[in-house]
Amino acid sequence: MNTFVRVKIQGVLAESSQNCGVREDGDTDKFKEATSQFHRLFDMPEEEKLVSYYSCSYWNSKVPRQGWLYLSINHLCFYSFLLRKEDEMVIQWADITQLERNATVILPDSIKVSTRAKEYIFSFFLNINETFKLMKQLANIAMSQLLDNKTFEQDLSLPELKSKMDLDARAKSERYRSLFRLPKDEKLDGHTDCTLWTPFSKKHVVGQLFVSKNYICFSSKEEAQCSLVIPLREVTVVEKADSSSVLPSPLSISTKNRMTFLFAYLKDQDFLLRRISGFLQETASRNCYEEDMAESFSSSDEEILMALYFSTKNHFAEYGHGVCMYRTEKTKELVLKGIPDSMRGELWLLFSGAINEMATHPGYYEELVMKSMGRCSLATEEIERDLHRSLPEHPAFQNEMGMGALRRVLTAYAFRNPSIGYCQAMNIVTSVMLLYAKEEEAFWLLVALCERMLPDYYNTRVVGALVDQGVFEELAREHVPQLYDCMQDLGVITTISLSWFLTLFLSVMPFESAVVVVDCFFYEGVKVIFQLALSVVDANVDKLLKCKDDGEAMTVLGRYLDSICNRDSTLPPMPHLHSLLIDDKESYPEVDIFKLVHSSYEKFGAISADTIEQMRFKLKLRVIQTIEDTTKRNVVRTVLNETAFSTEQVEELYGLFKAEHLTSCYWGGSSSPMERHDPSLPYMDQYRIDLEQFKGLFSLFPWAGGDHSDTLALRFFRHLDRNGDNLINFREFIIGLSVLCHGDLTDKLRLLYKLHVWPGNSLFGCVFHQAQFIELCKTLYNMFSEDPREQELYHAAATVTSLLLEMGEVGKLFCNPTGMNMGVTEEGSVGLGEQGFLRLQTNGGDTRAEGLTGEDKQQPFAALEEVTLEDSLPLGGCLDSAEFFPDKGHGDDVSVSSYSVLSSGSHTELDDRDRLRCEEIAEDTVLVRSSHFGDSLPNPDCLDKDWTISFDQLLASVLTEAALVHYFEKPVDMAARLAMAKGMRKLGSFLSSTEYEAAPPPGSPGLSEST
């Protein structure tokens, strides 16, 4: 109890001393000190930006640990130093599966952070609302990045985020765009309290005025009382009005359609006027799109129900017409009564906000159509396949004109947004849009639907629909509790949520009734879909409770939906595809669509858009992590039979592989995130790594280590990258690793041999030349440098190398018998002596073959004439010869190879100038570093182009040395290597593991040392 009280007091004091300004302002000394401490304690790179930090307690078991919670762009970190004990924790936002605020008797205010492995509880916040809000924002950003890595590149505001204020501004802009259905790139500049004079009610409405670069918007304090969207392209005059006690600090805004809006009670009238005037000057003058649409209202179609038509016209006369109209409860009532067919297209554009994007992007659709014409892709193939399934019962899509328009709209959108491309159900909703809107208008309606109103619905993983499926389950549990358990057991919720939500009921309801649902959807948003789904389920409670399986339940719901009718429709009845598939012998009483919609508002109208968004966030974490887990299971199941690793090891390797990818997304890499992560690809190819990330994982490979490790990693990477795209997927990675960990001696030697063979050189087949042999020597030296039996391996390698040298020389005799009598020439060439050592002729960088005929010279030398040691790099290699020969570039002390190979007695018979240098240990020759003997070794331009060895010769030579056989056949302790890799990620620059206890870096000072 004493410890608990002491910790509580310490937390209160620490939080009290931390002013809000410190957390908000990144330029203060305290925040700079906290940032420095954050990077030092957790070994974070400078690219990782600290957003804010809070004093709190972490509940480990039953005892709280007082410390500091650091919230950065990509990580949640906690540090505590209490009672001489140091605690440290690092969690990636991308690893979080649940984030919730709890209230219990012991902990009235706490935040629970859940990952796959553990739950973490933090409490004792003085401002828990602020902390939880910030954590939600950061987690949401991480989930968006995990879902689609376009976020890393396209979200230009993200790299500029430096403080909590930046994140708050981002959240406010998102809320602003969602509230008024504005384009995704619109950013809120500011907002202020005010009143709006409403001429239709002759009174002032209290609310808030929002200003951005292209729009002025108003929302009443009382929900749905009144709202306005005024595009600056429509504004003609902004000026001060006469101030009075009744109308203090007024501001008048006039538009092109002769509407005037009067705002009053503005706190800073002059500043607001200057701000709006500045934006107005930057706004390019454009023709108002509504003027082109005005003629559509002059139609006197006899089929239009005149009462409904004149009711709509009277509403526009009173509340305004076009994008600047007053939107009130009367507007909603108008929509719920039904929209005339001739007005439906324009009102869909207005209510969805698509009209704004269309007005600000003139000619964009035509340009997309021209660019996408003739292009073939997977999306276009799927579009062609589904064209004939798009409202086939409607006459408009029974001819080429309608089909062509639908094809152009869908193809243009797939070209605009390749990350979505085309998804089933898009053809159905687009075909309905084309019935009431022009082709370009239908395109922008589709943009609004896919990118703003139903985000993440129409993609390969339909994440948005899966999230809303979970939301619907929660709403059903709350509002239809007597039916929830039954629906869960039958599995009905999963089925109906995808089919109903993706098509906005168009595929399950008669057409003339479904368009009424679309009317309400474009006005109210997705809450209408939830309300209507709950109403349908609620109306069939008794019948659903009697169902024994999901098929019977779906039949009940299907018949009910088929019975929904629209008696006010002027269209001939059109049976939809779903009704044609049901053999309904039992008549069902008709259900009026307008009564059903009104019933949904009466029973479930209390469900607000904010409530749905909160539920979406909570479930989005779980859904995305479930998708990631499914991806991992599929990948593991696929590669398990191709490797000898256990299931647990494959899962751990996949986790490290994915973590390396995410880390490079956070802090940069040599390739873009979009190149390495594409959720539309098959499971195996969704995560890929480039060379830089592969080097970070190369420590898992048994041959890693030494100065030559990066070069060997490059060779491995090029070998694994079979398609040459400079990226490797997890399957390629783990198969290469499996050869080294579980392959036999022959497999490992064959791989080592392939890593050093010149790629793409079919003229010589798979044989070694002298350049590759030198590289192999360097590789072996580094492979053995950290082995406990290092000296024994050096001796064995020296013996094998000498044997291979002699084999290569003997091979020359058979390939080129005229060279047997080559000796030392006057020009300084070195022939083949009786010791059988390799000798090269050098003369000013030239390499000549003495005693060869003209034809002999042309054959092997012609292909090798331009080859140097740099050519032994794999294709696409980025290293120069200095990396292969670390000593190159140091004057006379440079040797072409860093290693010399000789047998123990041969050097005594060679001239000092010509002999190959070596170091003798126990009277045997070993591989040695010989950078100071550069003048005695050949340089890259003086390599013997006739000398070769084959893989069989290499294998046979290695088999003569027991030490080498033991080295290549010894088992690999993969568990230890995995543990080491995890430790490196905890203690190194990655800090991404949340499944293992984090420990402070060795030697890094803690808080106690800095005080």
UniProtKB/TrEMBL annotation:
PROSITE patterns: EF_HAND_1, EF_HAND_2, TBC_RABGAP. Residues 708-743 form the EF-hand domain. Keywords: Calcium, GTPase activation, Metal-binding, Repeat. InterPro entries: EF-hand-dom_pair (IPR011992), EF_Hand_1_Ca_BS (IPR018247), EF_hand_dom (IPR002048), GRAM (IPR004182), PH-like_dom_sf (IPR011993), Rab-GAP-TBC_dom (IPR000195), Rab-GAP_TBC_sf (IPR035969), TCB1D9/TCB1D9B_PH-GRAM1 (IPR036014). It comes from Scleropages formosus. GO terms for biological process: system process. SUPFAM superfamilies: EF-hand, Ypt/Rab-GAP domain of gyp1p. This is TBC1 domain family member 9. The gene is TBC1D9. Pfam families: GRAM, RabGAP-TBC. Residues 338-525 form the Rab-GAP TBC domain. PANTHER family: PROTEIN VASCULAR ASSOCIATED DEATH 1, CHLOROPLASTIC, TBC1 DOMAIN FAMILY MEMBER 9. One of its GO terms (molecular function) is GTPase activator activity. May act as a GTPase-activating protein for Rab family protein(s). The keyword Oxidoreductase does not apply. The keyword Transport does not apply.
